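> forwarded from #structure-qc
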């Protein structure tokens, strides 16, 4: 379980000059380079997906003030499944993106979401010294995650601490680990693009900061879990929280690109035409354009079949979560991402999963400028906004 108020950065890319006393120890990536805290606590949250780059600029000063959003398409094949496949191409895209939108090149927090990330919780007893604690966690890491420790970038947080009558200390640790190679390729692209990374955070945690509930149930209330899902192009990020901690996260091998592929196959059209049909689609029987039948019917059928696959993934994940000790009943599913804008999609997913589904509000925990609030593509920015919010 991860305390939402305590960010896990898989990447303080190098150690601070003066490590925090009494806090978590950052385990450095091999990438080198410096990271400086951005002035005025201004952060640029940067999400790099398979089909686009999205960014938020947030000034954190007691509250989170969202002052800018930007996004642009990314060529297919540059990033696949959250992994950088073409470092020079990503560097060129980032350089152009930051130039075109006049984004600051310092204070960048990048999101990471792949199936090659491990997040585990365990207890460490009887160690009070911070350095000894870090050594003990590194020793436990090879048991806790499947990533070989010599190939991993590690970070951890102490999410709870108790003492017994004899004065012994027991700490609950959440360990995050990712393949160092995956991180280093993003860092290499960022350096080539002349942008300075402040940190790398898990997209699941950023998603919860953006759209999740912010407080746990009171003593007189029954705790219920909220599920947040960001529907990307080639994968989707799922995170479950009780309002205080992230209790479960998973990257689903399902994205809006599957809808385009299904439409192209069903109608025998090009990928470009399928993309346009997806944007214009509706699976809401009250708003669907029946004048376009039978094409509209074929599009709805293709989308419906792919949504059944997503629903099965969601149900399997929720069942796995609820099989864990201390899990909670599911309150609702909040969906974001460009695909979530399809009319009727929340209602259809609710019917398939038998859980209430609604579109998330990416501006739920930020104060946004008027021009930002007026955008019609906010659903695509949920994770980028969360990355810009100071934990």
């Amino acid at each position: 379980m991860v305390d939402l108020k305590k960010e896990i950065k898989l990447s303080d890319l190098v150690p601070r000059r003066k490590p925090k006393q009494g806090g978590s120890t950052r385990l450095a990536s091999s990438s080198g380079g410096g990271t400086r805290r951005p002035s005025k606590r201004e952060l640029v949250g940067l999400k790099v997906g398979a089909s686009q780059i999205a960014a938020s600029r947030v000034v954190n000063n007691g509250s989170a003030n969202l002052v800018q959003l930007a996004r642009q398409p990314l060529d297919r094949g540059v990033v696949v499944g959250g992994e950088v496949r073409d470092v020079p191409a990503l560097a060129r895209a980032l350089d152009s993106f930051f130039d075109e939108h006049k984004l600051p090149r310092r204070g960048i927090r990048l999101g990471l979401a792949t199936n090659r990330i491990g997040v585990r919780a365990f207890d460490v007893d009887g160690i009070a010294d911070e350095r000894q604690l870090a050594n003990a966690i590194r020793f436990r890491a090879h048991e806790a995650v499947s990533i070989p420790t010599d190939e991993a970038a590690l970070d951890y947080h102490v999410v709870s601490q108790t003492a017994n009558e004899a004065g012994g200390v027991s700490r609950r640790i959440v360990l995050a680990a990712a393949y160092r190679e995956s991180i280093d390729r993003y860092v290499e692209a960022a350096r080539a693009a002349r942008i300075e990374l402040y940190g790398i955070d898990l997209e699941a945690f950023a998603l919860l900061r953006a759209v999740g509930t912010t407080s746990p149930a009171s003593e007189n209330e029954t705790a219920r879990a909220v599920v947040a899902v960001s529907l990307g192009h080639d994968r989707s990020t799922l995170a479950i929280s009780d309002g205080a901690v992230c209790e479960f996260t998973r990257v689903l091998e399902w994205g809006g690109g599957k809808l385009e592929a299904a439409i192209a196959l069903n109608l025998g059209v090009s990928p470009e035409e399928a993309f346009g049909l997806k944007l214009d689609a509706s699976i809401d029987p009250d708003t669907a354009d029946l004048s376009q039948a039978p094409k509209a019917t074929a599009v709805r059928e293709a989308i419906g079949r792919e949504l059944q696959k997503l629903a099965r993934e969601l149900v399997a994940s929720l069942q796995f979560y609820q099989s864990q000790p201390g899990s909670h009943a599911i309150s609702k599913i909040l969906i974001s991402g460009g695909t979530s804008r399809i009319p009727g999609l929340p209602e259809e997913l609710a019917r398939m999963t038998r859980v209430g589904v609604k579109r998330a509000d990416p501006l739920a925990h930020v104060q946004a400028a008027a021009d930002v609030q007026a955008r019609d593509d906010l659903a695509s920015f949920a994770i980028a906004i969360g990355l810009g919010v100071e934990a």
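QC bot note: The radius of gyration is 21 Å. The domain at 256-359 is CATH 3.30.420.40 (Nucleotidyltransferase; domain 5).
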